[in-house]
Structures are given as C-alpha cells and as structure tokens.
Amino acid sequence: MQANAPTVQGALEQALGTLTGESVRVALAGRTDAGVHAKGQVAAFNTNSRLPLDTFGRGTNAVLPLDVSVRAVAEVPLQFDPRRHALSRLYRYTLHLGHQRPGLLRDFAWHPRVTLNLAPMAEAAHRLVGAHDFASFAQPSEARRRQTERHVTRAELRRKGELALFDIEANAFLTQMVRRIVGALVEVGSEKRTQVQFVSLLDDPHPGAASVVAPAHGLCLMKVRYQNDLFV
Questions:
Q1: Of 19, 90, 108, 218, whose CB is crowded by the most CB atoms within 10 A?
Q2: Largest CA distance in the chain
Q3: Half-sphere exposure of 183 (CA within 13 A, CB side)
Q4: What is the CA radius of gyration of the chain?
Q5: Structural domain boundaries of the chain?
Q6: Closest Cα to residue 177, out of 224, 132, 120?
Q7: Roughly what angle, to the nearest 10 degrees, separates helices 177-189 and 118-126?
Q8: Catalytic annotation, pick one of 33, 81, 203, 204
Q9: Is 132:202 a contact under the CB 8 Å cutoff?
Q10: pTM for this entry
Q11: 86-225 in CATH: which number?
Q12: For residues 126 and 128, what is the distance between their CA atoms, to the nearest angstrom?
C-alpha cells in the first residue's frame, strides 16, 4: 500500500471490498520493487462471504483495473500465511539481445546495448546454486542489518530467440538481489567481470559489492511454491 501511488495490493483490496461488501486486507507472499512484475504473486484474506470460489475469481476481475488479474482461487486454512509458508519463490529476468531496442517488450525486458556472450554467463549463473552468503548482491544497508544467507535451488540462463531468460529459485530473496545478480552476469557476458571475479562475490561477500542493478522492468515473480502444491 502507498499513500501517493496506485498499487496491486490497493487495487485488489478495493475490488474484494466491492465484491464482498467487507473491509478486506490481504496478506501477500512478498513485496516487489516498483516496476517489477508478478505473474505468480499470492494473496490471502479472510472473509465471511459465502460466494463460490469461481465467483471470487470472475467477480474480482470484473472490477479490477485491466493490468491486474486474478488467475486462480483456492480456499486455505485460517492459519495460512502466504509469506511464511512459502517453500520457495521463482523469479525470471528477461534480457533483450537484439541490435535494436525492443518496442513491444520495452516494459518487460532490459536491452543492455552491449554484445553478450551467454556461455560464460550461464556457467557463472550455475555457481549460484546452493547455500551462499548473498551480501554482495544486496543493498548495503540491508546486508549490514540482517542475515544474508539464502539457498538457491535453481539458476539457469537460456536463449529464446532474441531473448535471454534467467530463472532463479530460492527459499527467499534479499531486496534487489536478483537485479544485482543480473547486473553482475551482464558484466561477465560483456567481459567487464571474469567468472572468477563473479564467484568471489559469493566466496568473499562484501555488502553491495555487485553494484550494477539491472532495471526493475525486466524482472517478474513467476511462482511461489507451497507444501500442498497450491496453484500448481
């Protein structure tokens, strides 16, 4: 929620309030930076409404703004917490590799304006898998005040036409963590940073050492995973 700007949370709560006639406050699986997209964000709320599940989906979408959409609805136990009960989160960052800037993808992909060698980038990305201290890939202020170890279960970079898709899944993420990882990978692909130097960001972490922060609009929260396979 922001007092001076529209947000997904604000739009969703307003739509649910219109549908149920109640004052609704949603709990979310996590926050995203301004400009970051979410295809798989999860929101939970309590209601006394007796509306069928499919009505919550169709009815909420009928009053939501066009850039926000409910994709699936499920009933969960009262104690369900979409953030604390999440097992992992999957993010995707999209790079545009074409010689000219994209038109239709301008709000969904970063066009770095340099030639990238994806092979060393993919190899460096693979080194992210496992438990590491990601202080180098966090905002310095955050890295100094909280625990920065995270467990990455998947980190893959692949080409799809003129796009490079970087998928990363972990138990949790630090603020700007994925965007700083992508910034460092682009440095590897453009020969501004070696793979050894990339790995040193993990082996010898210093808060904010990965200083290149990829633009927010290339990042998307794809999925949040739960023990009961909610929203498979």
A1: 218
A2: 59
A3: 18
A4: 19
A5: 8-83, 86-225
A6: 132
A7: 140
A8: 33
A9: yes
A10: 0.93
A11: 3.30.70.660
A12: 5
Structure tokens, 154: 């998947």
Among 108, 219, 94, smallest CA distance to 165 is for 94
User: pLDDT tens digits for 41-97?
Assistant: 999 999 999 999 999 999 999 999 999 999 999 999 999 999 999 999 999 999 999
Two tokens, residue 172: 């949790």
Alpha helices by DSSP H, 50-113: 53-63
Query: What's CA 32's distance to the chain center, in Å?
Result: 7
Nearest-10 Cα torsion for 178, 182, 188, 192:
-110
Task: Give the class (CATH, top level) of 8-83.
Answer: alpha beta
d(C-alpha 130, C-alpha 127), whole Å: 8
Residue 59, helix vs strand vs coil: helix
